[in-house]
Amino acid sequence: MQKSYTKNYIKIYFWQFLSIVVSILSSFIVLPKLSTNPNFYGIYSICITISLYVFYLDFGFLSSASKFAGEYITKNNQKHEIKIISFSLFIFFIFIMLFSIILLVFIYKPDLIIKNIENNPLILKISKQLLSICLISIYLNILSKFINLVLDIRLENYIFYRIYVIGNILKILSVFYFFYNSKQNIVGYYLFYQIMDFFVYMFCILKIKKLYNYNIKLFIKSFHFSKRLFIKLKNFVKPSLLSLIIGLLTFELDNLIIGKIFGLKQVAYYSIALIIFRFIWMIRSTFYNPFIHRLNHFYATNDSENLKVYSLNAISIMMPIILFPTISIIIYAKNVVYTWVGNFYTPSIIISQYLLLSIIFSFIYVIPETLLFILKKNKIRSLILILYLFLYLFFLFVSIKNIGIVSFAFSKFIAMTIYFILNFYFLLNILNINIKELFTKCFKGMIIPIIFLIISLFLSKNYLPIEKSKINFMIVALFGGLLSFFATLIYYFTQKNFREYVNKMLLKTKNKFVGVG
Question: Kindly report the CA angle at 14 between 76 and 243, in degrees rounded to 5?
Answer without folding.
Answer: 65
